[in-house]
Amino acid sequence: MRAAEQPVEPARPGWPARLHVVTGKGGTGKTSVAAALALALAAGGRRTLLVEVEGRQGIAQLFGTDPLPYEERHLTDAPGGGEVRALAVDAEAALLEYLDMFYKLGAAGRALRKLGAIDFASTIAPGVRDVLLTGKVKEATTRTDGQRRVYDAVVLDAPPTGRVGRFLNVTAETARLAKVGPIKTQSEGVAALLRSPMTAVHVVTLLEEMPVQETLDAVTELTAFGFPVGRIIVNGTRPPLPAGRATSHAELRRGLLAAGLPADRDTVAGLHAEAVDQTVRRELEETLRAELAEAGRPLVELPLLPAGVDRDGLVTLAAALVRAD
């Protein structure tokens, strides 16, 4: 049976938020984790929305689809009959939608596109781009069809840890600076959602020194801003190595001879060096795990995918996320 056909149980109450913001240092696999989380939360007949805001089209590349437009569309089915939709939020399109919604400037607003509307707006009101991006995410998260929420959960593939605090906090700053009007109202609504129990900000890391340090810094910054930090997700973990000292040259040679394998000096020396390296790696990873645990947030470990991240790999990651306590 293909991994993509294996059942993934619906996500348990361990993921209670409605908006899941996923950040991490570049190269940690945050887009893959965000996609896997969207699959996990959609399993069992639910509907989730996977959103990106950086213009990288990382979701389209991950799923091998055409670039995503500023339009919510079906991305993939989830195990158990669920659905994942995707949206790439474009700041200019969001501005035009905003102008039409609050000021009824449909045709006139579209004419602004030729004049570089978003560049103009960003110049006179720094941060407006991020306000528009987060505002669209908030609208999708809270939208109803008259009776129930359109999406059971929204997963945001957010900017990396170095920028995520400022990105999320810009709405609070805008609400503070704006005195009246729709901009102030919208900014206050977004700021309230991002600091409410409906939101959880998850930080993706690897068991490497720089990503772990950025993760700890991000948790501190997000907490200071008042954002609810969810889980620290350790991506690309390898099976733990057996405890104990590195095997000696003599032990390696006896083992190779017993197995009928070459046991010349160069082979034994190479294997011993590899064993020492693996021991050092294991000790460093345990130290980094302990540092992450001190942050006081739940840890989730996802396995390394030797074949890379494809559809089957995403389902494997989704299953691991679901199993997390």
TrEMBL record:
Pfam families, per the entry: ArsA_ATPase (PF02374)
Matching SUPFAM superfamilies: P-loop containing nucleoside triphosphate hydrolases
Source species, domain of life: Bacteria
Stretches assigned to the ArsA/GET3 Anion-transporting ATPase-like domain: 20-176
GO molecular function: ATP binding; ATP hydrolysis activity
Stated name of the protein: Anion-transporting ATPase, ArsA/GET3 family
Originating species: Micromonospora pallida
Organism placement in taxonomy: Bacteria, Bacillati, Actinomycetota, Actinomycetes, Micromonosporales
